[in-house]
Amino acid sequence: MENVVITVVGVDKPGIVAGVTKVLAEHEANIVDIRQTIMEELFTMIMMADISNLKGDISNLKQDLERLGAEIGVKINVQHENIFKYMHRI
């Protein structure tokens, strides 16, 4: 399994989760785990997605998710799991 970590942060509004999962489905990425919370008006989500069968490459997925984020007013970040773990090691 090859995973990416996707983080989403912004003002809460309907359709954020639906938009992100739609892009992932279009790229044939499979959601392995998802956690989200809303603190007052702030929406935060972190998910792990398996990209072993990714349609296209990771840069296309990143571009499409970043484009979605700009459209709906949230910040979406995509990192390969290994990079994420390396950057956040203790």
Automatic annotation (TrEMBL):
<protein>
    <recommendedName>
        <fullName>UPF0237 protein Mevan_1534</fullName>
    </recommendedName>
</protein>
<feature type="domain" description="ACT">
    <location>
        <begin position="5"/>
        <end position="79"/>
    </location>
</feature>
<dbReference type="InterPro" id="IPR002912">
    <property type="entry name" value="ACT_dom"/>
</dbReference>
<dbReference type="InterPro" id="IPR022986">
    <property type="entry name" value="UPF0237_ACT"/>
</dbReference>
<dbReference type="Pfam" id="PF13740">
    <property type="entry name" value="ACT_6"/>
</dbReference>
<comment type="similarity">
    <text>Belongs to the UPF0237 family.</text>
</comment>
<dbReference type="InterPro" id="IPR045865">
    <property type="entry name" value="ACT-like_dom_sf"/>
</dbReference>
<dbReference type="InterPro" id="IPR050990">
    <property type="entry name" value="UPF0237/GcvR_regulator"/>
</dbReference>
